[in-house]
Amino acid sequence: MADEQTLNTQDLEEQVAPDAASGDDLAARVEALEEQLAAAQDQSLRVAADLQNVRRRADQDVEKAHKFALEKFANDLLPVVDSLERGLEMTSAEDESIKAVREGMQLTLKLFQDTLARYQLVAVDPQGEPFNPEHHQAMAMQESSLVEPNSVLQVFQKGYLLHGRLLRPAMVVVSKAPAPASPSIDEQA
To answer: What topology is assigned to 120-178 in CATH?
Structure first.
């Protein structure tokens, strides 16, 4: 048995001697494998981050699709609201012969406006407000000393926002400062 242990020890020494020379080789392989592992972990983190970004973008796209799915339909309904409003403007509240028709138009318009508001479609009626080029479209400018320059004097057509995003700009007349009076020239002098 002692001979067996001596034999095993000799075998081990013979195996260790060549392995010592390959120890540097082994350390290089370990270092290479560690670098590969670090690269794989980095790539895994990048793929996970990309996947998370794709999911977030997809969720945002779905949310926007839900919010603005009514955009085309709402754009088609706005002329109906405009017509009802114009019809009410053109009729007189004192005319008894059309009083019932006028009340029906008012109720229909109110129902229509309530329905639009329920779907986050909000009217932009900027009468007297400062001009906002993001929500208003200037159709004309008019001199006025009664209001500040760049204020909305008249609204031709209301604008609308759908979930806070402009669906249709309000068409308006904007005030400007009156032109300074030109000095009168005394031509008789």
So the answer is: Nucleotide Exchange Factor Grpe; Chain A, domain 2 (2.30.22)
